[in-house]
């Protein structure tokens, strides 16, 4: 076991999990510094797919940079996420074949309204992961991930650097609350292959 059996257990019990310390402070600082150095390569994020893809700042205000499997700047995080993917497959037989992910930055005041991480008519996104890259995040900085739970309540996850949020993509609607300063993350989905 790689120490991520708690994630598999939580996905069975509740469908979601928050794991502080997934990256160390030094690893967070290195990845956010590398991300900031590539800021000019980020593009406004959109909603929808293919012909239905659109940029709409009233729904979503982040900017993203899609990552390749072997991206050297994110190598530590990607290797650790791949280990988690392997453990979830071994424990839960989810058939997770790959990680689709991007770096994301929300400028101060920006947000992403309530949504589900499944494209209409597709079920390839199985598990959502959000890895926060915000050193020294304060309680008053905002920017929480609000996860809407099965019983109608919600839980808020503060975007502290190194914290990993994991949840079932087809089960939990969620939103990103506005932050008072720039908010960084590595966000993605463990996917199964489509038919």
Automatic annotation (TrEMBL):
<keyword id="KW-0560">Oxidoreductase</keyword>
<keyword id="KW-0223">Dioxygenase</keyword>
<dbReference type="InterPro" id="IPR005123">
    <property type="entry name" value="Oxoglu/Fe-dep_dioxygenase_dom"/>
</dbReference>
<keyword id="KW-0847">Vitamin C</keyword>
<keyword id="KW-0408">Iron</keyword>
<dbReference type="InterPro" id="IPR051559">
    <property type="entry name" value="HIF_prolyl_hydroxylases"/>
</dbReference>
<dbReference type="Pfam" id="PF13640">
    <property type="entry name" value="2OG-FeII_Oxy_3"/>
</dbReference>
<feature type="domain" description="Fe2OG dioxygenase">
    <location>
        <begin position="97"/>
        <end position="192"/>
    </location>
</feature>
<keyword id="KW-0479">Metal-binding</keyword>
<dbReference type="InterPro" id="IPR044862">
    <property type="entry name" value="Pro_4_hyd_alph_FE2OG_OXY"/>
</dbReference>
<protein>
    <recommendedName>
        <fullName>Fe2OG dioxygenase domain-containing protein</fullName>
    </recommendedName>
</protein>
<dbReference type="InterPro" id="IPR006620">
    <property type="entry name" value="Pro_4_hyd_alph"/>
</dbReference>
